[in-house]
Amino acid sequence: MLSLDLCAPRDLEATLDARGGFLWWYLELMSPSGNGLVLIWSFGLPFLPGLASAARRGQASSPRSRPSLNVVVYENGHQVAYALREFSASEVEWNGGGAWRFGSSQITASEREVRASFDIDLPSETRLTGRVQVQGHAPPLPAGRPPAALGPSLHQWTPLLTGAQGTAVVSVGGRQWAIAGHGYHDRNRSPLPLHTLGLERWLWAHARHGDEDRIAYALWPRSGAPVALGLSVTPESSRWVDVSLEARREHHHLYGMRTFERVSWNQRGVPWLALNLDRCVDAGPFYLRYLDAGGSCELIEPDRIDRNRHRPLVEMRVTRPGKAPSLWAPLFQGALDRRPERLGAYWRAKLVARLGHLLRGAPR
């Protein structure tokens, strides 16, 4: 079974109880200069530590039990702030439609607009706060199946807002960023774990061309050649584009993932969506994200998600309810400047708290 089907599923809430499943919403706001924001709110985000390994042992949890909120800020094409916070199920509300609450953060979405205000506490005893508003159009789904030969899939992808413009303001640790640019919003959902959907690699890209959003996928099955998909969306219409993938100079990234110097989805031999992958703004053992003047791109290797040897690296980037953050968390969460100073302050605070605890417990 090869993963990806474009649809507007009506049984989203049922996914919350599908063991090992996932449901996430993605909002991107990006200026041509590389100032931007990504907001992901989710139930059962596949990249959270412990999820995939539990599913491999036959102990998959329900998406309802692992809600999370992720905020990433970019300045001049570089990541400058980051937060990934898990919540307990009791801290999260969803009305089954377009209204969510994750702790102190609120999100609302309609066919024309997404609004969010977020307030996330960080391990370094600071907070990441902000608001974002993106307005656009709910794209019509194209008629028929894409030109590439894809069978039915339990992974359902839905673009929700295109042709969009938006603004955001984000603050953390005395820093503030004001962002204005193009917006894009979509949703991914499956009742099964991502690593069981038949994919060796998954490459996604998005770019704006005038009033047109171009969205492309390349899907590598565990055996055989990759399948390339292209979707063109304007405020009035959407259509599948018959594309072929050209990926140049494959190599291994720092953590072992295979990637490329350049990818291009070509229409009759002419680049339709092309990106240089020389600006990696987020790197991990199973995930790479790139920004280019032409758009953004994400590469995932599902079989590498949540392997034991990689999990400590992931734990550093996640704050989980009822669990002490990694001692290295301040290096990866919050504003990403002055990280050594912030790490030192975090360790000193931990040491002082530990000494206080020992003194209080000492016999008099």
What's the short story on this structure?
The chain is mostly beta strands.
Give your account of this protein's structure.
This protein is mainly beta. The chain has one domain (5-328). Helices cover 10% and strands 48% of the residues. Strands 1, 2, 3, 4, 5, 6, 7, 8, 9, 10, 11, 12 and 25 form a 13-stranded mixed sheet that branches. It has a 7-stranded antiparallel sheet with strand order 16-15-14-13-24-23-22, with no helix packed on it. The longest helix is centred in the last third of the chain and has 23 residues, at 339-361. The chain is globular. The termini are far apart.
What key phrases describe this protein's structure?
13-stranded mixed beta sheet, mainly beta, seven-stranded antiparallel beta sheet
Topology:
Elements: E1 5-6, H1 12-15, E2 22-30, E3 36-43, H2 51-56, E4 67-75, E5 78-86, E6 92-94, E7 99-102, E8 105-109, E9 113-121, E10 127-137, E11 156-172, E12 175-190, E13 199-209, E14 212-221, E15 227-233, E16 238-241, E17 244-248, E18 251-252, E19 258-259, E20 262-267, E21 270-276, E22 280-283, E23 287-292, E24 295-300, H3 311-315, E25 334-335, H4 339-361
Parallel strand pairs: 1-11
Antiparallel strand pairs: 2-3, 2-12, 3-4, 4-5, 5-25, 6-7, 7-8, 8-9, 9-10, 10-11, 11-12, 13-14, 13-24, 14-15, 15-16, 17-20, 18-19, 20-21, 22-23, 23-24
